[in-house]
């Protein structure tokens, strides 16, 4: 699993979903998605990276990683699915990961992340009459 | 309803979460929602991750469990129904009554209503 130690909250993504990791300055496509945007502005960190994930139908999903990266094995028993009451409100988070030091991390569900380059659902099917 | 009274809880904020249920914690091998009483009551300092307050109440509401960080837990009280009067200090739905404890007006709060209200809000948002 790839962990991102963002000062706003640690988050993680399954390593099998990550296609490549690159410096944010080298990412030239649509702006990378900040999965913690609603928790505050992107904090200042020494280096920002972009995690490029495998999306549906071969699309790439770029997530902004503001914080130190760590790649580590995770015991499946340490991955706890979100309670039902919360799962539907934050579909982009599928679980929390409990680290050996008891700190917590949000496990990102790439298929539920809407990137800035994604087409809005229905946009192509219902064009404006004008 | 109260399953356990524990120490400070480690929790993590969820993006786009409701202010009353701002995040999650791990408890007994599963993730549970964290409730912020300060946000709910509109008084006091809001919770700030990663730690909660000095004590944590773990409440069971149906199939759901709620972790509620609090400053202090004093003692369980046995209260006669006749001592409970309709709420006047606060009139929100989750305030189900009030009574006098050692000369202070004390609210009786139904925290399960937070979860129920959250479910209704989510269901409303989906329709």
Largest sheet of chain A: 6 strands, mixed
The radius of gyration over CA of chain B amounts to 15 Å
Q: Tally of extended strands of chain A?
A: 9
Regions with little confidence, pLDDT below 50 for 5+ residues of chain B: none
Count of folded domains of chain B = 1
Structural class of chain A: mainly beta
Tell me what the CATH architecture of chain B is.
Beta Barrel
Strand arrangement across the biggest beta sheet of chain A: 6-1-2-9-8-7
CATH secondary-structure class of chain B: Mainly Beta
Nearest-integer average pLDDT of chain B: 87
Q: Which residue ranges of chain A are poorly predicted, with pLDDT under 50 across at least 5 consecutive positions?
A: 119-130
Approximately what portion of the residues of chain B adopt beta-strand conformation?
A: 35-45%
Order of helices and strands of chain B: EEEEHEEEEH
| Average pLDDT for all residues of chain A | 86
Question: Number of helix segments of chain A?
Answer: 1
N→C terminal distance of chain B: 31 Å
| Multimeric status of the protein | heterodimer
Considering DSSP H and I runs of 4 or more, what fraction of the residues of chain B is helical?
10-25%
Write up what this structure looks like:
The complex is a heterodimer of chains A (130) and B (127). Chain A is mostly beta strands and 130 residues long. Chain A contains one helix and nine strands, in the order βββββββαββ. Chain A has one domain (2-112). Chain A has a six-stranded mixed beta sheet with strand order 6-1-2-9-8-7, with no helix packed on it. Chain B has 127 residues and is α+β, with helices and mostly antiparallel strands. Chain B has one domain (2-126): Beta Barrel (OB fold (Dihydrolipoamide Acetyltransferase, E2P)). In chain B, the strands form two sheets. Chain B has a six-stranded mixed beta sheet with strand order 1-5-6-4-3-2, with no helix packed on it. A two-stranded antiparallel sheet of chain B has the order 7-8. The radius of gyration of chain B is 15 Å and the shape is globular. The interface between A and B is medium-sized, with 29 and 28 residues.
């Amino acid at each position: 699993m790839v962990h991102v130690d963002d000062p706003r909250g640690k988050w993680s993504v399954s390593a099998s979903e990550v296609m490549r990791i690159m410096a944010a300055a080298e990412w030239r496509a649509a702006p990378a998605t900040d999965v913690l945007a609603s928790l505050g502005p992107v904090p200042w960190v020494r280096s920002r990276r972009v995690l490029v994930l495998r999306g549906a139908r071969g699309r790439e999903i770029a997530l902004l990683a503001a914080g130190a990266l760590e790649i580590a094995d995770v015991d499946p028993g340490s991955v706890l699915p979100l309670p039902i009451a919360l799962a539907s409100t934050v579909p982009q988070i599928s679980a929390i990961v409990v680290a050996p030091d008891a700190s917590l991390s949000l496990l990102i569900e790439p298929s539920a992340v809407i990137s800035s380059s994604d087409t809005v659902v229905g946009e192509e099917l219902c064009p404006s009459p004008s | 309803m109260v399953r356990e009274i524990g120490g400070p809880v480690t929790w993590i904020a969820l993006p786009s979460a409701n202010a009353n249920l701002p995040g999650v914690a791990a408890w007994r091998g599963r993730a549970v929602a964290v409730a912020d009483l300060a946000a709910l009551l509109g008084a006091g300092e809001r919770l700030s991750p990663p730690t909660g307050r000095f004590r944590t109440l773990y409440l069971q509401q149906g199939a759901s469990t709620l972790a509620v960080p609090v400053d202090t837990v004093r003692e369980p009280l046995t209260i006669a129904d006749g001592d409970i009067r309709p709420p006047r200090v606060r009139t929100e739905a989750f305030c189900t009554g009030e009574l006098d404890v050692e000369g202070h007006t004390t609210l009786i709060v139904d925290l399960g209503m937070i979860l129920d209200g959250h479910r209704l809000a989510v269901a409303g948002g989906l329709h």
